[in-house]
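Schema walk-through. Below, the input block comes first and the output block second. Nothing else is stored per chain. Lengths vary across the set, and this one has 180 residues.
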Amino acid sequence: MPISGPHPDPSQNRVAPRGIGLAVQRLRAALTALSAALLASYFVLVLAQVFFRYVLNESLFWAEELVRGLMVWGVMVSSALVAASRDHIRVEVLELMLPPTGRRIVVRIANALSIAFSLILLWAAIQLMDRSWLQQTALLQVPKWTVYMAIAVGATLEALLMLLTWNQEPPAEHRLDPSL
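--- output ---
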């Protein structure tokens, strides 16, 4: 007996992620929420700064320093999300010219280099935190290492997410166009 009606969508038959896949999914969701909150906070702070400066003729002297610190945290947290989805800027010319096996090799080499870069960045961030341990920011008197810690946290998250998603196939919209 033929089945009538629309054909089922194969993407609807996915099994819910378990184990590491679930942990990665939850970490990505938490990092996305944190990135959005950081972006919203410095957006509001900049708007408040403009309002105070041009409407009230006052200055939020502390806002610029806080926004700068929040932006460093936002960029580093977001870079981990970009790395996990393999959306960093890259040149795909070599990938386009290779057969699928060659592409996989190039992607794995790129992944390994990204992890190596993240670990070098982590090492440099730890050294920077150590050198600035006793220093404080000019206006807020916040320890400078709290801002530099964003680099270490971002590099750690980037390396971790790259490792956890090592064998992940890119989503369909990220696959290379074979007609190019």
